[in-house]
Amino acid sequence: MTGQDVIDLIGLDRATSISSVDKNLTESKSIVLNQVGEFGVDAVYFNTDENENSFPAVFLKKVESFDSKTLEKIADAQKKIWNYKKVLFFYVYSETEIRIYNCSEKPLIVTQNDFNYEKELQNIEIKVYKFSDNKQLEELNRLFSRIAIDTGIIWTLEEAQFIRDRINLQRRVDKYLVASLINTAQLLEQQGLAVNLIHKLILRSLFLLYLEDRGATDENLYSKIKNGTKSYFEILDDVNATKKLFEVLEGHFNGNVFTVGEDEKISVEQLQLIKKCFISGNDNIPQIKLFDDWRLFDFSIIQIELLSEIYENFLFKTDPELKKRTGTYYTPPSLVEFILNEKLPTGKDEKNYSIKILDPSCGSGIFLVESFKRLVKRYENQHKEKLTDFVKLKKLLTDNIFGIELHPQAIKVAAFSLYLALLDNLSPKTIWQNKNHRLPNLINNPNDKSLSAEGKNLFCRDTILENKEIENIEFDLVVGNPPFGTTDLSESIRNYCSKYGFGKEMVLPFLHKATMFAPNGEIVLIFNTKVLTNTSGTYQNFRKWLFNECCVEKVYNFSVLRNAKQNFGGQLFGDATGPISIVFYRKGIPQNLSDKIAYYAPKTYIKSNIVEGLNIDFTDLKYLPLEECQKPDTKIWKVAMWGGIKDWQLVLKLLETEKNVGAYLRENKIDYSVGLQPLNNSTEKPIVDNEISKLSFIRPEKIERYYTNKSNFSTINALLKNKETIESYLEYYSVDKVYDLPPINVFRRITGKNLFSGPMLLTKEGLKNNQLCFSYIDSAVAYNSTVLGFKTGNKEILKFLSSILNSELATYFLLLISNSWGVERERIKPNEIYEFPITNDIELFKDLVKLHDAIEVKIKNALSYIDFNSIEKEINEKVFNLYNIKSGEKQLIKDFVEFSVDLFLKQEKSKALYPVLLEQTIEYGKLISDELNNFLDGQDLFTNATVYCINRFSPLMMIKLSFAIEQNTVVISEDFVDEELKKMDKYLWEENASNIYFRKKLNYKKENDIYIIRPNQRRFWSQSMAIEDASELILEILNEN
């Protein structure tokens, strides 16, 4: 096999050549090819979505052999790709082998001594495949083919674990640069430099290197500062020259970025630390001698948008309190790109460049920079030529780009980032040094005396206070990532929320005030998902305004991404953050208002491709009825996050039940309460109780489903769990060690004491084996405040409640309606349990109590493993009967517990992601045919299903539905699904460049057949999914007719 044969075999013949002259290239492909032209690669394989946004996925290079000169070129190319950050894999192939290089790994540090490229490159090699070995070719095709890339199977396939082990996202350029900056800042601080000066030095260096690497500074500038110098690094060898350079730049940038204080004192040694940081990084390893002119970081490649991320991460890591205080999180470039692809696309037909854009909390300017670049592109579309004129670029910027930000340091970074974006377009790029080309004053901050004049674009203000200058401008687009949180609220936020009756949450005034900035424009803002799910009245007031007085086009709920592992394919935010969503809306109600709102909520952070950034997988898109969304107390946002419209209908049906747990407790005079709270730092009046100190105690994790034995109890001192609590008690009792404590008799709060004598029913906030956990306890025991207890003298009532609340139905209902589970914390709150509907039937009541007794007997008599599955199945069936749950609804509930809950809790290890079993597709085929045949009843036409042979490596699964005049059982084809899919993919690619492996979900009609294509994961081929897919097909058929 030749090298080209292997490239054809793995499907990468669809890669685009770097020197492509194809006139039909999408705009986004052209931009990437232009960016990577000097990388030393031959071709790029792209993923392209349905809106023609193309994302680079793999770089390819062909070589004659892997000799030392070639290996040196490979190392250089990998370094450039690493600086580019967007691509994980670099494929280099000859006529005999292919080597896969890891572009998330830090490049080789090239030293002067005889550098052994062959040996060192093995550190960034993922795998080498020889073409003469068929087994190796099979693995190459399975793990690194186009299909594997398009479907992202490396994130889930067991055989791909070695790839996941090699990919360390924390070693990527942005993470490594931030780590280097932090280490350098710490060393400088240890040497006595003030933090403020360290920030200034690092920022100035970042900015200068961006200018230098992009050709916007030259020897002319440096030699005027110090004769004979050609670069910033040479200037850094001289303290006086460094200070002089900073002063020169202060003049050029109008004080908008550089302000040099009289008292700035810094040594050559400190400047050398900064130099090392930017040449080879600083990961606290000893200095090594490098090749002349060799550098790790290349700011001609590192995107300007990353400057915001690098700066904000650096700032927040060196000042963590600032992040907490301001409620701000940096916005990843991929999220910015995702939002602006929708609201500011740059396709060839997009020619309107006169769009006033405001970011009301612009931080260091990432939305503004990307928006400006897109306006430049639109200008070029209109005028059919490159925009390189200084005056026109300056006017485009000052006429259209606006931001508000409270933090003065951040707004300076925003100004510089915009200067960089402007300078990046100039020809020649050094023209800004000309006295006639003054960069615009952008910043408006009356408190900053270093500004030579006030600008009219970036306002250092409190957005929520009245700002006449900004409010007099009418904006066409408001976009951004406002701060969110409920602590440390400013007076302006508190007053604004009080004025409109909104919840005291930082983000709400920004969402509301955006409509004043853009009364006729469009708005896209990121916010905290709790705004959609919080049930309190003040949050309902906000939702009433948003969905009744505004036109909401769509909502993206990315809450699940908060759990993404740092080294996993789905990580969006670099740091732990709260659950986020994005809302697209505008003020007022248009005449042609849609009766649906598009709602996208992924159920897993595991990516279904390997491209950088955020790609929507439309398996998680729902259209919610506007009428329901307009109800302030609706639970649809939470239900639709984990379920579909049929789940919503079932939840509604259950909510209509006359009585719920809360009413049942009151009616039967059942006491209920959470338990004890131990002392902590904030306890002002400890409560002493000697009776409680004599009781046993049960920790929440020791509570078992249905019944808990006494053997799970501990002493009262088991209440002490975390460090803060233990320290409070050691101090209170004046002892040094935990085992010196007496039985504790003092607490912060005592609730639930009247329940401790038993018998009682206890429940904890979390789940046990994917299900809710309620436990009957027949003896005295104390518990803590994360446990809710119920007590009555009537043991049968407690056992009845235990049976229904441990059922699949209760788990299903409560997880779907809980405003916290799956959004922020994995817990069910007591007030949510009270909402579960209660239906009573004397006979079923008795049956459930008997079955509960049978489980108790098993638990009491068991020596080790307890199996009560068969009894539990009976309980579930009785509960379904009690609530009149139909067979389709039962399937919905079972699939939710088996797949959705399991996926949320176990993510990449969930059985929801396991490959489909043949019997599962047969069952799916039978069910979808039955549903369609019920619809076609009486029309002398039948639907028959054909299923295909699969192996577990098939990334997609397909079944065929055929329409005929006779009804048949499900046909099992002897054809392998992979071959059929490849044929169809080839046909669709030739027809309209559509890629089914990247799209993943497709209903494709060909003559009398419909092909249903979905990922090869069990969650997509469940019985409830068959019912949902049948409904979708029926709707399509009706719409066609």
Automatic annotation (TrEMBL):
Residues 400-559 form the Type II methyltransferase M.TaqI-like domain. Keywords: Methyltransferase, S-adenosyl-L-methionine, Transferase. GO terms for biological process: DNA modification; methylation. This is site-specific DNA-methyltransferase (adenine-specific). It comes from Solitalea canadensis (strain ATCC 29591 / DSM 3403 / JCM 21819 / LMG 8368 / NBRC 15130 / NCIMB 12057 / USAM 9D) (Flexibacter canadensis). It comes from the Bacteria. Pfam families: Eco57I. One of its GO terms (molecular function) is nucleic acid binding.
